[in-house]
């Protein structure tokens, strides 16, 4: 702990988003908030490549992606590397509940995204989250990466 702040469990994030404006906004916001964005990709193939080459603490993934595969396929690939996935989507299907650690509903503000990541970080560290940010749902199978 440094000056009253605890170490983050989530430091290196992979963004998987096929809407360029959202991808750019998320990358800028997360970098500004002190996270290391190790990649911003728009397809399953690119996500798998980054997951195989980089150390990743969290994947932020939309469900609908360009090309073959979707966000649930990204979550399966991430699970093989023990990397948690937070879905960011307008409609999170029931099947995603067993694949991700939660879902943040689109649209969301910068503040909601930051608060969601802070709450997720707490939960990953085993700290009780007293107030879950609007639009964020945690799934039951949440465990530490």
Automatic annotation (TrEMBL):
<dbReference type="InterPro" id="IPR050595">
    <property type="entry name" value="Bact_response_regulator"/>
</dbReference>
<dbReference type="InterPro" id="IPR011006">
    <property type="entry name" value="CheY-like_superfamily"/>
</dbReference>
<protein>
    <submittedName>
        <fullName>Response regulator</fullName>
    </submittedName>
</protein>
<dbReference type="GO" id="GO:0000160">
    <property type="term" value="P:phosphorelay signal transduction system"/>
</dbReference>
<dbReference type="InterPro" id="IPR001789">
    <property type="entry name" value="Sig_transdc_resp-reg_receiver"/>
</dbReference>
<dbReference type="Pfam" id="PF00072">
    <property type="entry name" value="Response_reg"/>
</dbReference>
<feature type="domain" description="Response regulatory">
    <location>
        <begin position="12"/>
        <end position="121"/>
    </location>
</feature>
<keyword id="KW-0597">Phosphoprotein</keyword>
<feature type="modified residue" description="4-aspartylphosphate">
    <location>
        <position position="62"/>
    </location>
</feature>
């Amino acid at each position: 702990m440094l000056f009253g702040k605890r170490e983050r469990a989530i430091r290196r994030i992979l963004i998987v988003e096929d809407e360029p404006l959202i991808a750019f906004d998320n990358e800028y916001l997360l970098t500004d908030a002190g996270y290391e964005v190790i990649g911003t990709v728009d397809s399953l193939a690119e996500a798998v490549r980054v997951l195989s080459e980089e150390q990743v603490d969290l994947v932020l993934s939309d469900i609908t992606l360009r090309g073959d595969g979707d966000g649930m396929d990204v979550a399966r690939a991430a699970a093989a590397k023990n990397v948690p996935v937070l879905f960011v989507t307008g409609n999170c299907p029931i099947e995603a509940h067993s694949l991700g650690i939660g879902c943040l509903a689109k649209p969301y503000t910068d503040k909601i995204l930051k608060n969601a990541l802070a709450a997720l970080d707490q939960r990953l560290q085993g700290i009780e989250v007293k107030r879950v940010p609007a639009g964020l749902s945690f799934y039951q199978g949440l465990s530490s990466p």
